[in-house]
Structures are given as structure tokens and as C-alpha cells.
Amino acid sequence: MLEISSIKYSPIIRVSSVEITDNSLTGDALLKDCDRVGCIILYADDIPIYASKVTPNLLDNNTETNKGSFTIHRVRDAYAIGDHVYLKCAVGNRTLYVFNKKQDFVPNQRKEKVLCTVEELLNNLNETYVSDMDEIGDYAWKYFREHGPRKLVDATYRMFLRRDPEEDAYKHLNVSEDHPRESIVHYLMTIYMSEEASRSGFRLIPTLGHEYFNFI
Length: 216
What we know:
Elements: E1 12-21, E2 24-31, E3 38-44, E4 47-58, E5 64-73, E6 85-89, E7 95-98, H1 101-109, H2 118-128, E8 129-130, H3 137-147, H4 149-160, H5 180-192, H6 195-198, E9 205-206
Antiparallel strand pairs: 1-2, 2-5, 3-4, 3-6, 4-5, 6-7, 8-9
């Protein structure tokens, strides 16, 4: 399970007014603290799919309340990965909402066009995504040895952030002489877990065969 620091993010007490439209979910959340944003993560089984910030609402006098709203995308796609779909608070991993597939999804599913079967989507995900960063550690370590640190940083940014790195980004890669592979995996996790990467949507790790897998 993913978990983030309570120093930057507020715990979420509960969610309400949950509604699903097409492939997105909206809802309201009650934050423990009004001076920090919250974070909700969508899971399928134990795999994190999407993360959404919960920003405290402002009153007319610009005073923050401890209530906020959130949007979670690709909710229906989660069922292609696992049968147990739920929302958790990223601080403390408290379960906030568990989906009932029949009640929450069946009525609106009739309105959607089926582009591929669940089996086809699941097979594609299984082939091109992994759930553990260590599974691509050997590829990254080999790529580092063959192309050097700058190319590794370039490839990592394009894979997880879909952009080129700024010039000072290269200084954040520190490869240990005693444990080079482990330090590279740690670097990949740092970029993958960054705030910018969390906004990218589908939160799985690409591997060999995926269009964004760059360690080849």
C-alpha cells in the first residue's frame, strides 16, 4: 500500500456524495485539518490506480473549511485489474469507500461503448505493467551501465513524467558504489512517487513492451 506523510497532507475522516459518471467519480471529503490538502487513492485489489488531491473549500471570506471535493478518473477500468475496488486515505491507509460493482456501475455501463473486452484489457495490462519497481531494476541498471547517468535520468523522466528533465534534475541521481542497482531503484521510486507523477493518471509501472518503457 502507498502511504504519504501526515506533515504535508491531512488525514481524511470520511467521504460522501459519491457519484459515478461515465468513467469518473466525484465526491466530497471531510478533512481532519483545514490547513493542508488531503489525498485519496483508488485501488484495485492492492494495486494503486489513481490518486486525487482534496483541497479545502474556501468560504466567501476566503477562510478555509475542513471540507473539500475530489475527482477520481478511470474508475471502471479498475475492474479490469481486480474485483475489489476501493478508496483509501493516503495518510494512514484508512479505507474510505468500497465499491459495489452491481449498484455503482451497472446502470451507467449501458451508456458506454465497449472498445475491447475486459479480458483483452487485462491481458494487455499484465504484459506491459508491473506493480513492483524492483521488477524493472535490472533493466534500469543495465541501461545505466550502457548509457550513463544523464541518459538514465532522461529515460526516467520521460517514462513517469512524460517530459524531459530540467538541468538541475541530474544532480538528484546518486548511485552507490556498493549497491548501485538498489540506489537506482530508489531513484526510480522517488520520481514515480513525486507529486507531479501522481497527477499523471493511470498509476502503474510500465515494463518491456509498453510504449513508455525507455530502459531498452
